[in-house]
Give the backbone structure.
Amino acid sequence: MKKVAVLTSGGDAPGMNAAIRSVVRCGLDKGWEMYGVRQGYQGLINGLFVPMGARDVGGIIQKGGTILGSARCLEFKTIEGQKKGIRQLNQAGIDGLIVIGGNGSQSGACALANLGYPVVGVSSTIDNDLYGCDITIGVDTAMNIVLEAIDRIKITASSHQRAFLIEVMGRDCGYLALMCGIAGGAEMVVIPEVDIEPGDVAKVIDEAYEKGKSHAIILVAEGAKYNASMLQTFFRDHKEELGFSIRVTILGHVQRGGNPTAFDRLLASRLGAAAVERLAGGETGVMVGLSKGEYKSIPLTDVVANKKTLDLKMVELARKLD
Ligand code: ADP
Ligand code: F6P
């Protein structure tokens, strides 16, 4: 390995910069020439390579987002797009690639590995939906942002005796909603993994009112069968079933924009270093992730073929603590 490139792809996650910094500096430490690819797989197809020295990644460990930029690139889902990317890497004399991103990005990395190009993934997404790892880069920061929002909303909710539907990110996965629901003291979590009807939510809100609570907080994952807007529409027509009046807050991209926590900076620094070690050791077609306290290599074919499941014990705990 002499020349190695790193890219960030898909939804940005706080800690991606710390991972870029770690990859670049650990690669330089091996005596490699390091490159960044701008704008994810779109930049790969267009050959947007930039040399990266130690000073180019200075002052970024504390910053959210990604200095390399990210993108969603439809063309890369095609074999032609993937081959264009490999041609660009070969023309630039780059011998290996490190891909920092979530499920879709790791599918892209898997496709490159299947075509014979040396690639290692780094698990990074606020959704925490990557198979084979317990927690990914960005989750801890996003959870802390959500918790701060819940704490603030509770104050105004109590003043006005209201119920709030707070929608958090998670396209196909309820991890953020579940964990923040528990840590934020929500009355209920509405997640894609559990079949919940609007009537079930109405019942919980009404019960909270009857118990004499000053507010009710319902955490809703955006990917749930009924998201916050759908529930709001339902409640508009069923006001009589609820003691509290309802308000909705959709946290959206606020959750992705924060500066990384200590946990995310450390996780990203370690995973970046692990990715370099794996590539140096000749591994390819794997993603590095934290699992049961260890920094493991998970085959990308497994990452792509399997869905991460939620810990049902936590779903039970959320119910008990409401
Ligand atoms: P994330 O990595 O955060 O899950 P996306 O799902 O949007 O984000 O994926 C990011 C990018 O990865 C996509 O825009 C596309 O370029 C690439 N990608 C996604 N799925 C595939 C796939 N099945 N094969 C090849 N590339 C893919
Ligand atoms: O995958 C990360 C994520 O933040 C999801 O939770 C969310 O559904 C999606 O990205 C939003 O994507 P975009 O930034 O393209 O709106």
In short: Residues 9-11, 41, 72-73, 76-77, 101-105, 107-108, 111, 125 surround adenosine-5'-diphosphate (ligand 1) (CB under 6 Å).
